[in-house]
Design a protein that fits this description.
Length: 396
């Protein structure tokens, strides 16, 4: 296969280590892993990447994302070693977006310089809140001043594409404290801002603490914060391209857009998910299993829950992810992929939501209206197709 024929893919690498577990976190990450175990994990991760040698030649990665956990808590030199392995197996397209998730308080200038040497060109910094009380309640390891210091260090190291994560709907958060967080972030002029609502996940300290539920802002208060975010960021030149994501022109996150528009992706590391060669699967979430798998059987032996992706799954996902994007879903693109129009598959649902003013057609694209965004979860749920609909022979 010639170089020009390579298929595009996105790669995700999971680093499941954190300094301390945040009170709301249900991500696959550990805060109590000794350094030797972390080293063993990184060795296994590199074996896994190497396990794709050969097949990797058919692809070129258009985005790479190091997520976690906290990839930036790894000691100096480890990320460089990882990238050395990655580049020896995978072709990464010139100019590809390469992101690393970092937490304030874990960065040094040397680490940042190392990331730049590896070709990493985008940082995603988890601030979550600019308010000391809120940060403490969340169990974050840093304060606002450490965030600013790390942000400025990243600029000094040459990073020109920085995302800042913030959260709304936090316990004890008010419109005023949220507004101050947003104002503080905006002073720094990051290229990208993600503003996600807190969700209380079972098994986390937040879920077990009744007083936390009592301190949550009302649904209406959270909605007001969200609409305030949209208005303010839009007025300052940030384009909202997805329900929770805002970017200056040209800085939308290509990796996430890849997920949202159905590009193939492979995940490496503990619990990492993949959508590859017509199958969805995830790696084992059991650290012991991950660490003890034999080199010769990797990567296949790590895969769990591997199932073929049906046309029905693809349609649902196209709607689910596409409707979260500000541009919405294109009827032309739907027909190109599935040989049926949106009207043919979803006519009744679409008509009812358009009549209610939650969805709107614009230039051949179907998208959420502002008031539809407020109830988007309910709307998106209605785009799940009944398995019985396969009787027409088109859906599988
Ligand atoms: S830093 Fe992120 S991954 Fe780590 S514990 Fe906190 S929320 Fe979870």
């Amino acid at each position: 296969m010639g170089k020009l024929d390579k298929k595009e893919i996105s790669l995700y690498i999971h680093i499941p280590f954190c300094i301390r577990k945040c009170n709301y976190c249900d991500f696959l990450s550990f805060s109590d892993c000794p350094m030797e175990a972390q080293k063993a994990y990184m060795d296994k991760l590199m074996q896994e990447i190497e396990g794709y040698s050969g097949i990797a030649e058919e692809y070129q990665a258009v985005s790479v994302f190091l997520g976690g956990g906290t990839p930036s808590c790894l000691p100096e030199g480890w990320i460089e070693q990882l990238f050395h392995k990655l580049y020896s197996v995978w072709t990464v397209k010139q100019g590809a977006e390469i992101t690393i998730e970092c937490n304030p308080g874990t960065l040094t200038y040397r680490k940042l310089a190392e990331y730049r040497t590896c070709g990493i060109n985008r940082l995603s910094l988890g601030l979550q809140s600019g308010n000391a009380e809120e940060l403490k309640r969340l169990g974050r390891i840093h304060n606002y001043e450490q965030f600013v210091a790390n942000y400025l260090l990243a600029r000094e190291a040459g990073f020109q594409n920085i995302n800042v994560d913030i959260m709304l709907g936090l316990p004890g958060q008010s419109q005023s404290t949220y507004g101050k967080t947003l104002a503080r972030v905006l002073e720094l002029k990051p290229e990208h801002i993600s503003a996600y609502s807190l969700s209380i996940e079972a098994g986390t300290p937040f879920a077990e603490d009744k007083t936390i539920m009592e301190q949550l802002p009302s649904e209406q208060a959270e909605r007001n914060m969200y609409h305030y975010t949209r208005r303010l960021l839009n007025s300052l030149g940030y384009e909202q391209y997805e329900i929770s994501n805002f970017a200056r022109k040209g800085y939308a996150c290509l990796h996430n857009l890849g997920y949202w528009t159905g590009r193939e992706y492979l995940g490496f590391g503990l619990g990492a998910s993949s959508d590859w060669q017509g199958y969805r699967f995830e790696n084992t979430r059991d650290m012991q299993e991950y660490l003890t798998e034999r080199k010769e059987t990797i990567p296949e032996a790590l895969w769990r829950n591997r199932i073929p992706v049906t046309e029905r799954n693809r349609m649902e996902e196209f709607m689910f992810l596409g409707l979260r994007l500000t541009d919405g879903v294109s009827d032309t693109e739907f027909i190109r992929r599935f040989h049926r129009s949106l009207e043919e598959v979803y006519g009744a649902v679409i008509r009812s939501y358009v009549d209610m003013g939650f969805l709107v057609w614009k230039n051949g694209n179907l998208r959420l209206e502002d008031r539809g965004i407020d109830v988007s979860n309910q709307i998106l749920a209605d785009f799940l197709l009944e398995p019985e609909e396969k009787t027409d022979g088109i859906l599988m």
